[in-house]
Amino acid sequence: YTNNKKINDGTGENKPCMKITFKGNFAGIVRKEFSITPGDLENTTLTLNDVTYQNQAGKCKPSVVIKDTNGKTLNSGTDYRKLAFSDITYVRDTTVERIVNKKRVKVICEEGTAVNAADIVPAGTELMVTVTGIGNYDGTRISGYYRVTKSQISSAKIKVLKKQIYNKNELCPGKPDLKVTVGNKTLTEDDYEIVAYSNNVNKGKAKITIRGIGNYGGVKTLSFDIGSYNLSTVE
Fold this sequence. Notes:
By secondary structure, this protein is an all-beta fold. The chain is 0% helix and 41% strand.
C-alpha cells in the first residue's frame, strides 16, 4: 500500500493505492486506487474514570481512553483534541465554589454550562465530557459521563465469605456473600454494584468486578477461589 495513512478522497496527486502481485497460475501486477474517509468517534469506545474530590480548583478532569473497533487506543492530540475544561459540562444545576480574585465565591452552574478552570467541583457531581475528533477523525464527536466522588473503590479489598465449590454452573457470589472494605471501613450494599464475573465455572481463580456508587467511584476487579467438588462425599 502507498499513501494510505491519512484521509484522502482519491482525487488529485498521491492517491491511496494498493498493489497486487499475482503468483502461481496467475502472473502480472494490478494497481488499484481507493479513497480514505474520516473515521467516526461514534464507532469507538470511550472510557472515563471517576475523579476523587479535591478541595482545589481545576481538579476535576478525568483520564480519557478511546479505543477503535480493533481495540487500538487512539492518541490525544493526534486523533482527538486534548481535553479542555470547555469540553466538560455540568449534567444538572450545581452549586460550586469558584476562585475569584483569590477568594472563594459560591456560584450556581446551570445544567449544560461548561466547567470553569477556577471551579472547585463538589463530590456527588455528575459531569459530561464531549471529545472532538481531529486528524483521521476530524469532524466527529463522542460523549460520556463520569462523577466526582468522595472516594475511589479501586483500593477496595473483597472477601468471599462463603466457600465456592465447582458444580458445573457459573458461580456468582452476591452482595450477601461478600465483605468489601476500603481502608478500615466496611462498605454497605448501597456503596457498590456487581457488574461482571469471569472464569467462574471451573476450579481455580475466578474474577468479580464491582463498581462504586454513591460516595464511591471507579471499578475494581478481584479474584476469588473455586474449590474442587469432593466426590468422596457422594454415595
